[in-house]
Design a protein that fits this description.
The protein is α+β, with helices and mostly antiparallel strands. The chain contains 17 helices and 23 strands.
Amino acid sequence: MFYIGFDVGSSSIKASLVNAKTGKAVSTVQEPAQEMAIQSPRNHWAEQGAGLWWTHVCYASKRLVTENTLNADAILGIGIAYQMHGLVLVDDKGEVIRDSIIWCDSRAVKLGDSAFQQLGETACMEHLLNSPANFTASKLAWVKQNEPKNYEKVHKFMLPGDFIAFKFSNEYTTTISGLSEGILWDFKHSTPAKMVMDYYQIDNDLFPNIVETFGIQAKVSTKGAKESGLLEGTPILYRAGDQPNNALSLNVFEPGEVATTGGTSGVLYAVTESLKATEGIKLNNFAHVNHSKENPRIGKLLCINGAGIQYRWLKDLLNPGANAYAQMNVLASEVPVGSNDLQIIPFGNGAERMFDNRTIGSHMCNLNFNQHSQGDILRAALEGIAFAFVYGMEILKNDNTPIQVIRAGNDNLFQSKIFSETIATLIDQEIEIYNTTGAIGAARAAGAVDDAFDISTVASQNDYLETFEPLSKKENYQEAFLRWQNALNTIIQ
């Protein structure tokens, strides 16, 4: 018997089967094989057809059942993880009204900034723990203001994961964690955020029903079963946005624990029990998967846009050949700490929230044509991205966020010893590396609802790979970080 987990991203849908007895992942597929396109009808817009996600969820679901020679009744439950902050609108027949406005769309920035000013920073931080910014509520307000004919048709608005659950079940549901990521949850009153709804004039009837993050949220309908290949009545047991779900996948639930990723962008997601937030711009604060009014658990999220994309850019530019990243890491390892006084500032992927939405750009500082080689550039890039993570962790600490345990997925940047050891050494903290995915985490979360296994135990037994320890000799790292900070400050000023 098995649980199935889906991770609905903007590039692809990943789906995993997890054994109901052991919690071990037995099969994972990705649909489609090539990345899904993101439509950009105007500058800074980003849209996808929500129906496309469902199509590939169904392909992935049927593949897992068929390729593992299973009957549909072998699937005990469904877990869903999804790209955060998107907006899906459906009419009273459940038909999608327009393409989804997804997480990387920035059309609603001005609306969110104006709401923050009008509602007041103090009120926003006390009730929402965030600025309305460019999140789901502001995107819905944009549709209301700019596409009134579409808005008139809206029966329900949903997040991407809510939409997939709806397609499975024909029931409109959402979660507190989901509403918090849309800046539609009032943490002070533990209710939907009336202050935001009133400001944007959003009708309460447009909200889906609120269900628990863990539990029987809905069941697969006749239509959902026919399209997905799963059995009618199969329960949807779990749902969460990709970053809270990534933290769950890495066994990050309690204050002091931090989940981090080092992909195209970098993310620090730290769990705290505090409902006090002082950084409304640099950080975002969302209800974690195990949050409750009685036992608050808040995920503080800091995103670094310019991270792995810097190293990928260098890969494409330098074209090192087969096993490109491994070869790049070898060349970088031949250069001493500090890259012979070469600094690379990695923020070349748009505005950075931790710099108050300023566009810093990527810079190469102190380049010496007679001294620096390809290896120096590669090490300076790895160090520069690592320094950006350390810089971000200082912001978290300044927001009264304890950091005691750091866990990371085994993705491209954390596979680099230079990158991982630089961070571990500068923050004097071990970094545990796990080989897991969001789809596996979602499947395990579904199993946890049935008490099939303990998530923490199965993660330790099946996923743990290694730990990067802080190095005892820190001076060279500290001096290199200081030089990097000085270069960054010069650019900022």
